[in-house]
Recover the amino acids of this structure.
């Protein structure tokens, strides 16, 4: 009977001392490492996300709960909005536990997982410790392309643009790369891409007689341009831009792109000849914030030193009277301008 009493006393003493000893021994010796290797994904595409708990103490962690709260651009389900998930585990002394999740792109836009909380306790919930972490890298969710078939699209216009060389393609108009084929000139091999891909690839060129089209994405929603943003409408415009780029590329058109939206570190208007995949990547990083008014894009088009664009698709929800006047000037100079809205919205 006395032995049972001493066992009970010892058990109570352990329960009394254990929470305090555990907290002092574990506090400051548990690390959380978050790995988010992917930088871009499509809507519905899975992205690996890993949370690693590292226990550097000599005490075990009987209970560790990882809780993740995702931003609106990501979800734990490929087709439904599920932004919260919790996972409970344990970590032995001087060990680590790696928990893997799969995140899915849900809405277009750049984002980062910044809300990861970890709750630890000694097994009884008397003394608790809390950790927090965030992914060091961001992920950009590319938009889902919208159908773009009801608009007048260009056809091949032989001789509309000068051919700089009658035998060899213009190497300044690089379209992309393709696997090397027997007979390709050695000077057309893209050595840097070959080293990165692990196989020999050759450069693909745009023909100098291909038609050109310029896609303009306008992020201005009010005047002055910095007073208002319109994220839902902007996302719809991005979907239409990507659909247009894919359709034009299928028809062999040189696709040029310009926008006044904030895209990564870009702070000025740039007219670039891009493939549809490059445009999708750029739209994934684009914010619904205008860095300048639409005038800056239209003034660049009207500049005499700029090459004339025969066809311009303007994806916009708002233009001022002055900007509409500039569009009329472009039309008078022979440029075909198609204004494309989302949901049939008209100018304000």
């Amino acid at each position: 009977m006395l032995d049972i009493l001493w066992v009970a006393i010892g058990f109570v003493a352990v329960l009394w001392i254990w929470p305090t000893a555990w907290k002092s021994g574990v506090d400051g010796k548990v690390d959380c490492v978050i790995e988010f290797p992917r930088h871009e994904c499509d809507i519905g595409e899975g992205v690996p996300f890993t949370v690693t708990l590292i226990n550097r103490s000599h005490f075990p962690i009987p209970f560790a709960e990882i809780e993740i709260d995702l931003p609106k651009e990501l979800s734990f389900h490929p087709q439904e909005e599920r932004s919260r998930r919790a996972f409970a585990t344990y970590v032995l002394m001087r060990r680590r536990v790696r928990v893997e999740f799969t995140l899915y792109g849900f809405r277009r836009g750049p984002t980062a997982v910044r809300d990861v909380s970890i709750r630890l306790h000694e097994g009884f919930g008397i003394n608790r410790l809390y950790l927090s972490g965030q992914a060091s890298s961001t992920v950009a969710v590319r938009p889902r392309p919208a159908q773009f078939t009801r608009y007048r699209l260009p056809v091949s216009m032989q001789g509309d643009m000068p051919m700089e060389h009658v035998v060899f393609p213009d190497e300044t108009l690089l379209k992309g790369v393709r696997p090397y084929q027997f007979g390709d000139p050695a000077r057309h091999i893209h050595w840097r891409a070959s080293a990165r891909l692990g196989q020999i690839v050759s450069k693909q060129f745009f023909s100098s007689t291909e038609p050109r089209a310029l896609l303009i994405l306008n992020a201005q929603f009010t005047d002055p341009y910095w007073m208002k943003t319109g994220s839902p409408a902007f996302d719809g415009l991005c979907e239409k831009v990507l659909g247009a780029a894919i359709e034009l590329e299928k028809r062999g058109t040189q696709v040029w792109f310009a926008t006044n939206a904030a895209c990564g570190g870009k702070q000025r208007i740039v007219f670039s000849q891009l493939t549809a995949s490059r445009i999708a990547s750029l739209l994934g990083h684009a914010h619904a914030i205008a860095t300048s008014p639409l005038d800056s894009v239209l003034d660049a088009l009207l500049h005499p030193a700029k090459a004339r664009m025969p066809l311009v698709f303007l994806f916009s929800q708002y233009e001022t009277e002055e900007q509409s006047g500039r569009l009329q000037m472009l039309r008078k100079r022979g440029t075909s301008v198609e204004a494309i809205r989302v949901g049939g919205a008209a100018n304000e």
